[in-house]
Amino acid sequence: MSFDYSVVKDRKYYDVVKGPCKFLLKLGLRIKCEGVENIPKEGAFILASNHIHFVDPAVLLANFPRPIHFMAKVEAFKYKITAFLLTHLNTFPVSRGRSDKASIDYAVKLIENGCVMGIFPEGTRSKDLKPHKAKAGIALIARQTKADILPCSIYCDKKGGLFRKVTVRYGELIKYEELGLTEESSTKELRAAADKIMEEIVDLWEEKHCD
Fold first, then answer.
1. 133 falls in which pLDDT band (50, 70, 90)?
2. CA-CA distance, 205 to 186, in Å (whole number)?
3. What pairing do the DSSP bridges indicate for beta strands 164-170 and 149-155?
4. Which long-range contacts link 123-127 to residues 24+ away (Cβ below 8 Å)?
5. What's phi and psi for 11, nearest 5 deg?
6. Which domains can be identified in the chain, with CATH numbers?
7. Which of 50, 102, 188, 189 fits a disulfide with 131 by CB distance 3.0 to 4.6 angstroms?
């Protein structure tokens, strides 16, 4: 798999896929979105959400008013067909467990170009549908991009089955300055910033379904 980190743009198939994706999701899920008024209409920011199911990126992109550039584990790009689909849905690969300069530099380019970047701070899907501790990577990327964070929660109380109710809830924007990060921030400070972001997500998640 090769990804062109030199080009930052909305892929040509993004809007083509978004409509059918939203239609198919409506056939199998009952999705309700709250806090949409908190989504900035313009400007760059990081969308940070908990992760409970492999369709979470589709749930978010299908109901989000702006294109999202998702960061995803490099393993998801293993096969040509999935690599093609992910790439043309604005998704870019990152190698977990080590410093990935190419993906970090690409994330910076996205923010510099006014894009919305989507990240699942936990780094993997939750097996019990509950939010878990965030990796420090979300804070590292925030520090590198100097981007504000839009916290988001995806709540569902059933692991499987058709017509499951899913509530997507957006919180208020977390300004980068609120994270207390600097170029000299220690690992401990990065983890504290990641915890702060995840706490906001958990607070949204704990509101569960509104009805």
1. very high
2. 29
3. antiparallel
4. 123/73, 123/96, 124/51, 124/73, 125/51, 125/52, 125/53, 125/54, 125/56, 126/50, 126/51, 126/52
5. -65, 150
6. 14-205 (3.40.1130.10)
7. 50
